[in-house]
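Hi F.,

I've been meaning to write this up properly since the lab meeting, where we talked about keeping a consistent format for the predictions we share between groups. The idea is simple: the sequence comes first, exactly as it goes in, then the structure tokens exactly as they come out, then a line or two of notes. No screenshots and no reformatting. I'm using this chain as the first example so we have something concrete to point to.
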Amino acid sequence: MMRFALPLIFAAALLPAQQKLAPVNEASYAKIVAAHKGRIAMADFWATFCVPCRAEMPQLAKMAGKYAGRGVDLVTVSADEPEKEAAALQFLAGAGVGGPFYIKRAADDDKFSALVDAKWSGELPALFLYDRTGKKVRSFLGDTPMKDVEAALQKLLQ
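Output, unedited:
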């Protein structure tokens, strides 16, 4: 078991010492999306305790890297508790995800979820695609085949 933990520990050691998960709440989420205007944003809500999230993350990172030159950004928002922040950072580093990294710190989880997507109850994983104008154009709630995400992404790139 230790054999599998070591790469994550080494990957975390490669992160800059100041790297943290920036808190995101109801007010700041809209600003984060707006900061990606002119690019396509894939906003992924995940957690270390979520098995499908951990399976999807390396694939999303690879997809984001593949299309970065065409204006695609991956925005990750952890739904972990504060005491799991270090584990979340270790996982992101091991999965090859670039920053910045966010952690959900909503005053009201239901209001936050409704703000992001009226049909989202907060289940994980959840991925939201935003076009270059910052408009949400697609939601993927729950475990989603990556081929479906990539097909939606490719439509936005046309």
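Notes:
The helical segments are 2-14, 26-34, 51-67, 85-94, 109-116, 146-157.
The chain has a mean pLDDT of 89.

If this format works for you, I'll send the rest the same way.

G.
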